[in-house]
Amino acid sequence: MLTVVGVNNIPDAIRGHDTLVSPDYVDLFTVTTSRAGEKSAEEWARVVLETTPAGRSAPLLWRLLGLRLGPTPSPDYVQGWKIADRGEGWIRIEAASWFLTAHGVVQVDDRLLSVALFIRFERPIAAMIWPPVSALHRRGAAVMLGQALKSHASIETVGPHRGSRDEAS
Known about the structure:
The protein is of the alpha+beta class. The chain has one domain: Alpha-D-Glucose-1,6-Bisphosphate, Chain A, domain 4 (2-Layer Sandwich). The protein has four helices and eight strands. The protein has helices at 12-15, 41-51, 53-64, 126-151; strands at residues 2-6, 25-32, 77-78, 81-87, 90-96, 100-108, 112-121, 161-166. The protein has an eight-stranded mixed β-sheet with strand order 3-4-5-6-7-2-1-8. Helix 2 (41-51) packs across helix 3. The radius of gyration is 15 Å and the shape is globular.
């Protein structure tokens, strides 16, 4: 699993699907699997967030962050995150609280499944709250992605790789 953190480390192909101006935090998880293209980006988002054990428990943390979540199940929301936009091979979901705005982007092609999170701090307190939460997020996101791939028997190659940590970019 390739993991990168930092605004300047996200490929333009992923960054181009997000509309958040000047994000304060961005991370990206990418796995290579021969079966990535067998599901749409929305289907993968739902598998990761709605069917994995870690994904089903994630709304607890999101609510502690004050994220306003929509109804579940719903064709307009993925685990409470509003479907904001989608295109060929990608989907963007959004949620916000009084102190931060979050966008998630899932992108798939024939061999790659990528999940990115973009955060913008709306109030100064977010800069104090998000750093420790981001560590939980990175661990949870990797677990959710691994659970999704394992449960759907779609792992081909997953190798450890850590990208640079440039959270302040």
